[in-house]
Specification:
about 110 residues; about 20% strand; alpha+beta
């Protein structure tokens, strides 16, 4: 298992255990992480699983694809260099301790 921490806009943290090989989005949905809506179910067509990768993790996870970059232009909050769609991040053991921030416009 790989531990991932999701940080809400108010600073509240939720640590979840993810199975290697699943997407970060699947781990978030399975653990009821607020703010990860994943309306398209991970098909890279909705941008409702937008997260910001914590600065200490930027560059330590695989880079985003061109399609993901294009889809990030449709997010509810301005994308940054740290923006990712968590449906496109596949969990592996090198990500143990990964920290992701939920955009403030995705709270419910």
């Amino acid at each position: 298992m790989t531990q991932i921490t999701f940080v809400q806009p108010d600073g509240t943290k939720k640590e979840v255990n993810a199975t290697n090989g699943q997407s970060v989005m699947q781990a978030a949905i399975s653990n009821l992480v607020p703010g990860v809506f994943a309306e398209c179910g991970g098909e890279l067509s909705c941008a409702t699983c937008h997260v910001y990768v914590d600065e200490q993790w930027v560059g330590k996870i695989p880079e985003r694809s061109g399609d993901e970059t294009d889809m990030l232009e449709l997010t509810s909050e301005e994308p940054t260099d740290a923006s990712r769609l968590c449906c496109q991040i596949q969990v592996d053991s090198s990500m143990d301790g990964l920290i992701l921030h939920i955009p403030k416009t995705q709270k419910f």
